[in-house]
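User: quick one, fold this
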Amino acid sequence: MAEFKEITSSREFGEILDESCQRKIILFKHSTTCPISERAWQEVRTFMKENTDDVLVVMIKVIESRAVSNQVANDLEVKHQSPQVLLLSNRKVLWHVSHQSVTQNNIMKALEGEILPFNLI
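Assistant:
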């Protein structure tokens, strides 16, 4: 099972960026009031149950932790959406999807390199 952590502060986000230099991070931005986001959260939970890789899944609740959610969008230069999944490695976004594209299958494909990263730098 993948490791899970919810973050609520800028300090924790900085720690996650640092950790992305050691292993891949799945960052999930979740709206607790949106049914589409609830479906995406179910997909992420299924991914966590079935994944055995050394990956950390991090959740930010976008309403409750709006400042951190905005910081993610600004610092990583990825337009905010929710639900949204970002794959981080070495402090960079390798891949991201939102809304109906947040699926266990897409997350697995991105981690396995079957979906080409959009940011190869």
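User: anything notable?
Assistant: The longest strand covers residues 92-98.
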